[in-house]
Amino acid sequence: MRKNIWLRAAAAACALAAPATAAAAAEPAGQVAGLARYHAQELDWHGCALGPEDEVGRELDAAGADCTELTVPLDYAEPGGKTITIALSRLPATDQEHRVGPLFLNNGGPGGAGLDMPLTVGAAMGDVAERFDLIGMDPRFVGRSTPLDCGWDIGTGIYSAGPDRASFAASAARARELAERCRRAAGDLLPHVSTRNTARDMDVLRGALGEDRISYLGYSYGSYLGEVYAALFPGRTDRMVLDGVIHPDRYRQTLLQGAEAANESALRGWADWVAERDDAYGLGASRDAVLAAVDRIHRAAAEEPLRIGEFRLDAHLLPIVFFGGLGSDLDERRAALAESAAVLARAAAGEQVEPGPGLAEELAWLTTGAGSRQASAQTAIICGDVAERRGLSAYWRDIQGSRAAYPFAGPLASNVNPCEYWGHPAEAPTALPDDVPALLVAATGDPRTVYEGTTEVRADWPSSRLVTVAGAAQHGLFGEYGNACVDARVNAYLAEGRLPARDLTCRP
């Protein structure tokens, strides 16, 4: 599982508002004045490992990859001003005779680091990877790129409203505090944190690589980044694969709104799986018994934060542990959540418990400053894209309106977050570009980017094709779900550059 990225599979989380209905203006066809020096920069490719403890760097080096830093303007409206750096990795094509070009990779998030993606995606591509320069990228202010850190004491910008009006008020106060910390720590950077600027960084990289067009593979939020790039730079994409697709109209401040039913369904599916293994986890021998155990855990956390070793988990952060574990219906992921839930159930019953290694890492990331940098960048990206002031009563109405049908997901999906207290975005949100030939991949039960969003993009892009995994509650398919049908379809498109003649359905 990739590192704590909430739209992919995470414990770290964050979200935002304002439907993306404003038309997206494409960048000028020619080079924007002042950007020529960035497009013409010479990249200094070098080894990736920063030292003996840098596991990712050592793996990249061992695979034959190299790394570099791209210089881009902090503010594209003032390209002669301050600059920042973007960390990149490249696994070069080895089949030069059939080389297609660069394949840019994005891991989602927002705020997901992508430096290691040439390794993971390359493995999924098999021999097809030999035709591409696989490009990993830590987007601006993420990973090894120029940093942004608001100095938070939690690793998330989104959390549940809790059980009542008092807990909702406390969550709103925390959201205001987190936003204020970002203003104090990184106020000069915040206006320049946006998906549109990341897309501009990608096009600077295209120019620096000397390429006319790029191919692109983006997961989850990475699908939105791909849509924005295609809108700003029409005609500069070759082969595009979007996995777990977000329609821009669904990219909003409360980004999980609309996914409540899928998450409640995923919770029930997980409970069925756990009930069949009651001897292993002791959470109940039926779906209802398991869900009752989960409810007891939540009620106990609402009365007093649960003690799990050195960590304290309250009613606001506890739902994220379950949310993070429900991003996949693979046995390994379901087992990991079941093991954590068994520990939490014992803590809720008043026992002294210690977390296992996986839960300990998750809680450290979620409840301490360890996850501050990723959560800060994630929040700043979404707020920088679509923040708007709604007023607290609007959130409370949505929470209460969804609580009965979605007791787990409603208070999490509709809750206030730091974007309510953010500055206004520097640019209007980006609308879906005109028809783009792309391969869209999605599962019908995706609990993060709901399937309906993918079908909306498919309808708006008649030249695209859709590969569906029916009945799967999975977020992120290509190279991650072990579905031979999906992997074969994606690899065939990347290898040949031809979309399937029609939409396709794969079995889970």
UniProtKB/TrEMBL annotation:
For this chain, the family text in UniProt reads:
Belongs to the peptidase S33 family.
- PANTHER family, sorted: 2-SUCCINYL-6-HYDROXY-2,4-CYCLOHEXADIENE-1-CARBOXYLATE SYNTHASE (PTHR43248), TRIPEPTIDYL AMINOPEPTIDASE (PTHR43248:SF29)
Q: Which residues are in the Peptidase S33 tripeptidyl aminopeptidase-like C-terminal domain?
A: 408-506
Name of this protein:
Alpha/beta hydrolase
SUPFAM superfamilies per the UniProt record, alphabetical: alpha/beta-Hydrolases
Signal peptide positions on this chain: 1-22
What keyword terms does UniProt attach to this protein?
Answer: Hydrolase, Signal
Start and end residues of each AB hydrolase-1 domain: 102-249
Q: List the Gene Ontology MF annotations in alphabetical order.
A: hydrolase activity
